[in-house]
Amino acid sequence: MSKEYYNTKEKVKEYIQMAKDVDGRLLIDKLKMHLEANSVLLEIGSGPGSDWKILNEFYEVIGSDNSVEFLKYLRTKYPKENFLELNAISLETDLVFDGIYSNKVLHHLSDQELKDSIEKQHNILKANGIICHSFWKGEGSEEFKGMFVNYHTEIKLKGILNDYFEITLIESYKEFDEDDSLLLIAKKI
Description:
- By secondary structure, the chain is an alpha/beta fold.
- Helices cover 31% and strands 30% of the residues.
- It has a single domain, classed as Rossmann fold (3-Layer(aba) Sandwich).
- It has a seven-stranded mixed sheet. A two-stranded antiparallel sheet has the order 6-7.
């Protein structure tokens, strides 16, 4: 559903404008407490590259996106960097990582797709690897500006992750409204 949204140059430009004042610096500061500097990190859904740029200050980051239009944008903006075309569910890569990061990307997946993604993330992480993801907090799902949004609660996320990861941090934070978001950091078991 959301893949179609990000497939046109116009929608990518619209999204870049919509997200121009948003970055994950607060999330990345929390990640730094759990993942050593200079670790190899996969960013799922690099989008306009805002978080990718900040992450690169601390980690060896490989960006990714499932949108060819976003990849064209990123490769033009950062021509010497490596960006992979990756689906957040299947994560088909032979690379392994110390950590995996996404900021408001995995909420585009259904519950089953998220479970499948978490299993794949477990498979491409080194021993004791770390994941750091943010989600919109709440229940249910909806279409928002042509994008599928699946809301999550702490209990729901714990149920999805418990076979693969030990949650080291899960907390609410404010992106636009008080307690509208959840940050999750977990270690591979």
